[in-house]
Amino acid sequence: GVGVIAQVNFLGPAALTRALEAPILAAAAHAGVANVVHVSSVTHRYASIPSVNRFLTQWDAGSYAATKLANVLFAYECHRRWGAAGVRSAAVDPGAIYSNLWDNDRVFSSPPMRAILGLTYAPPEDGVAAVVTASLAPFHEATKHEGGGEGDG
């Protein structure tokens, strides 16, 4: 079957986004623009998806970064498909968030690690604020200095 982490972090949000395609396009047609935000992570920068089958069936937490890379790639694909219709799609990294994600990890759920995470990671509200801000903020075309322009590589 499909690994839980791929289901929760990528397939569920991607399926929801695709299911909302018609209303998203209608909103863009009505308002002139619509924003779609996909949640990623800094870990996507260190991930690869060499095999779609392996990506979908890995059950270990090591595929977390790959699911976040998949979200970035899906954000790009949504923008490519719907951008001309006024839909702006972006991936947002909410930062290191202290949540119950760590509760089932043997190392990170230990009392010393929980204390460290509690002191160094942001509360869930901060992560939510980053995503909401990204969904409401006006987008603009990237310049060559911000990415997406000439000379990027």
UniProtKB/TrEMBL annotation:
InterPro entries: NAD(P)-bd_dom_sf. Belongs to the short-chain dehydrogenases/reductases (SDR) family. It comes from Micromonas pusilla. GO terms for molecular function: oxidoreductase activity. It comes from the Eukaryota. Coiled coil: none annotated. Keywords: Oxidoreductase. This is Thioester reductase (TE) domain-containing protein. PANTHER family: DEHYDROGENASE, RETINOL DEHYDROGENASE. The keyword Mitochondrion does not apply.
